[in-house]
Protein: Fatty acyl-CoA reductase
Amino acid sequence: MSMIAAFYSGKSILITGATGFMGKVLMEKLFRTSPDLKVIYILVRPKAGQTTQQRVFQILNSQLFQQVKEVCPNVHEKIRAIYADLNHNDFAINKEDMQELLSCTNIIFHCAATVRFDDHLRHAVQLNVTATQQLLLMASQMPKLEAFIHISTAFSNCNLKHIDEVIYPCPVEPKKIIDSMEWLDDAIIDEITPKLIGDRPNTYTYTKALGEMVVQQESGNLNIAIIRPSIVGATWQEPFPGWVDNLNGPSGLIIAAGKGFLRSIRATPMAVADLVPVDTVVNLTLAVGWYTAVHRPKSTLIYHCTSGNLNPCNWGKMGLQVLATFEKAPFERAFRRPHADFTSNLITSQYWNAVSHRAPAIIYDFYLRLTGRKPRMTKVMNRLLRTVSMLEYFVNRSWEWSTYNTEMLMSELSPEDQRVFNFDVRQLNWLEYIENYVLGVKKYLLKEDMAGIPEAKQHLKRLRNIHYLFNTALFLIAWRLLIARSQMARNVWFFIVSFCYKFLSYFRAPSTLKV
Ligand SMILES: CCCCCCCCCCCCCCCCCC(=O)SCCNC(=O)CCNC(=O)[C@H](O)C(C)(C)COP(=O)(O)OP(=O)(O)OC[C@H]1O[C@@H](n2cnc3c(N)ncnc32)[C@H](O)[C@@H]1OP(=O)(O)O
Ligand SMILES: NC(=O)C1=CN([C@@H]2O[C@H](COP(=O)(O)OP(=O)(O)OC[C@H]3O[C@@H](n4cnc5c(N)ncnc54)[C@H](OP(=O)(O)O)[C@@H]3O)[C@@H](O)[C@H]2O)C=CC1
Structure:
């Protein structure tokens, strides 16, 4: 019997960010392994024309929750969606709901965040710092609370090369930042943002670091733990391999490369690609929830959920495997044939951006104009290159994260729990995982049917022929222009033609002799 699964039975669990990538997998695993849990409260806001109830309905009816419905047929009754918006200081939760949350919650998993790299500092502070502070305040009023698990990121201290399982202070106190966001106007915030984030690359990593400081400062008597995952990717094993539902991290770039838009990236092939599957992160999170509640460690423990020090894979290896999978299962209606150059040199990368990205986009837009359609490729390409430039920071560096607490926790688990809540990344076969990841992107993100693979392969063959034709035409035009203008080019041309002629005559003569 799994001790962790048994621990969650009968519990009332509060999850923030349950509609997000990680939150969905967390809920799924909880329902599948502990179908006897009492209730999962989720804080949800209406979005994209859907009410909170419609959003929950959609999640529960998705492919991800297929197995849950068999194990826990009354899952609809065990999920309580509470209207909440973390942009508001009191989360806009109504009185009755708040009362229920305060009096019943046993465990909190705080996953909600803005993960956009370029978010305005005011919004990033509100979501990643102030909302965390508010939630801690709520938690301090929950008499039945056993553990508060805060999800941070391994990159909250990405300005350091070696990162220990400790909270590193930021120069300006989070409380001062929160206060200043209330009275500074947007223009001044824009001006001071680069100074505040310092040597971090974006507001996301900075505000996640501030969020950790808030957790440390306002934990009071709560039983708290922090989990720091690195780059979270598609599922490895559970509930099935390759599930992914958003463009964050590598997923968007896999699509861009598979569709032939992205053909080169400024990345260091030997830099460690510190990916962790989302089910691994969720397993660790649930194990940490159990350990924190049952063993009540004296201080706030931080757990790194990373792969680089235990089972490293680098971007070069990952890129090759992604391309190899495109060969087997190409994406449909690609713009160009998939190809990926990894270069760490800025000038070479700018050259490839001009030749492999901007030029084809301009030519394609020219073709669209000629055929009476609206040009759009240059715009798409500009947005893609902007996205890539934001991710470049993470693919040109390697970090070392110590994992003593994570390894300690692994040794505390029973063999059964090590199996059911497996977070041992040493068992991960990267080539297999990356292949499943790419196939998952094709199936679950692009919603492409595997039956369309032969047609997709045919399309790539057509693109290859167009590519050869285009290059030949380009060469002939350039050559023709050169011959018209330069005596030297004409001499070279006559030399090549007469050489070919002699070469062919030499072979024709002996063959005629034989006959
Ligand atoms: C063979 C090659 C193989 C390649 C493999 C190499 C992989 C390298 C991957 C490196 C990943 C490093 C990630 C590091 C993560 C740190 C971990 C965390 O804690 S943080 C957690 C991780 N957090 C993140 O990863 C957040 C990163 N994302 C962002 O911050 C924002 O989306 C944005 C600022 C990039 C774009 O904002 P903005 O333009 O205002 O608006 P929108 O957001 O609305 O999207 C607009 C357009 O961009 C599109 N698109 C979106 N994402 C991607 C993508 N990743 N990619 C491509 N495209 C992407 C989107 O489809 C849309 O297209 P369209 O409608 O125009 O056609
Ligand atoms: N994905 C990754 O690579 C990594 C993620 N992390 C951390 O893991 C956690 C989960 O990330 P992930 O699942 O990928 O992120 P997602 O962007 O997929 O999910 C974010 C969640 O936060 C919710 N949220 C955002 N704003 C609000 C708001 N104003 N009110 C209520 N809810 C809100 C979203 O709700 P809605 O659906 O309504 O937008 C969504 O449920 C985050 O804390 C992130 O920092 C850490 C390392 C890597």
About this structure: The CA atoms of residues 32 and 67 lie 7 Å apart. The mean pLDDT is 95.
